[in-house]
Amino acid sequence: MIRVDGRSDSPSLIRVRGLNKTYRRGGENIQVLQGLNLDVDQADFVAFMGPSGSGKTTLLNLLGGLDVPSAGSITVAGDEITHMSASKLTQWRARHVGFIFQMYNLIPVLTAFQNVELPLLLTKLSKSERRKHVETALGVVGLSDRMNHFPRQLSGGQEQRVTIARAIVSDPTFLLCDEPTGDLDRKSADEIMALIEELVGKYHKTVLMVTHDPVVAARAHTTLHLDKGVLVEAERKGVLVGGVA
Amino acid sequence: MKFNRFIFANLFRKKIRLILTIGSFAVALFLFTFLAVVRSAFSRGTELAGADRLVVINRAGLINVIPLSYRDKILQIKGVKAVTHNNWFGGVYQDEKNFFPQFVIDPENQRQVMTEMRVPDDEWNNFVKDRQGAVVGAGLAKRFGWKVGDRLPIKNALYGPTKTWEFVLDGIYHNDHPGGDESQFWLQWKYFDETIPAVIKSQVGWYVVKLDSPDDAVPVAAAIDKGFANSSTETKTETESAFAAGFAKQLGNIELLILTIGGVVFFTLLLVTGNTMAISVRERVGELAVLKAIGYPDRYVLFFVLSEALVIALIGGLIGLGLAVLAIPVVGAALRGLLPPLLLSVSVLSLGLAFAVFVGVASGLLPGIGAMRLRVVDALRRV
Question: d(Cα A179, Cα A188) in Å, to the nearest integer?
Fold first, then answer.
């Protein structure tokens, strides 16, 4: 169950307390996130919505260990990540986070198989073990027959499936999706969302997703609305559960 | 290694750029190797010069002669073991482009002084007895396909009216030093002195003095020059290596010229490759950011960029060195007589390879550090 009041006593998979992020731009301090609290459990599916500049992507970057907060703490599966060194954070990302980007960001000179294999090259798995994992991941996203295709030979939806396979191949603790359907037509977007739902429902993956699209957000268990760096509203499957600011 | 495929796939993403960069490396390495070989050819005379030999020339310059009578006076100086003398002959064999050095030698003392140039005894004895005899280096004999017994007409205009001097090839010398000179033509002093006009008879071009010990070089040189001071023909005596270095310098400061060209090649190559790598990294900022996002440490990103630069350098370098191996003997043959023999040694090839590796690493270093320091959040925002 997702909570945003910071009062959860039971241990949650992702626990955020008093998160602040301030940027300095042109001699001025810009507060992007202000005292944000969040508890996310295993197999939760959360969507973050809000206008541009509301802090959605910043929140995602902080949760993924790509950026460090100005204040507050983030704890994932018992690991407090806010005080980790850059190299520790890199190791932590490799083990715990699967990233799915709007622009896919596949390596164009590698095949689908090789792209999905990239995170596993950092592990001690043997070549045959890596192959097994990659085939499984590509099977989950329905691209077993496109393994040896290069990104340019795939449709946008298929490229995003490869990105999802790359995100799940190392079996991370949670997935972070930044506008995963932002570059896709409605049909492909529906297919991608069905796949993400399957990852949550069938494989019990925890997913945190940023989107501008209310239709896409409606597929999540909970949608959290951000505005000017604070959570202002929460919906559970389309039902408003109250203001949280 | 498990990253090979990734590194090579990245290398081939812009094939034309890759080919052009490798081509730049190959040309630069060829030029580098060629310059190194030319430099080594010019300095070889100095390296191979006998440490126990002095050269005595006319103080006014090498083109001025010295009386033959000086020989006996030089021989009397303490520390002198033997003395021989030479003249520049300067003839033409068939055509002016067939240039090779021709020296008038003193058969009685030549072998005592120039000990590294070996002629079989039977051939030498024939030469000594043959007024019109000649001895040539093995390289020269090979160049023109000469063999012992051949008649060799050499046209000469330096000593009186132009006339053809007839010689018989009596012997072939080999140099004990690897890479040592085997391109000379020797003729008899007696034949030369008898044939030239009376006004220039009994004058030698220079003396070569063999010492009892290399340690005697400085005092003996000083004693020779002192002995002829204030005479009509003063002398200048120096070690053979100093003489060879001075002779090479008459052609200009070859060393400086070669080092300057080499430096320009080095920096141009560094800039070309560095620019290529910088463009390549800039084009892939998003991909590198994704690699870092999914857990690739900074040092891996640096390693990928450096590896690409190194592979380009090695492929280009090996092609350039291969070209040098094929071309230098051909160029050397074409320039025979104009330049000392061009020998491509293993040490020059190793130096070329080290040069390629150094430029490869240096050119990849700055773009690699830039990629390493890339902030994932900033880079993804740019995509």
Answer: 13
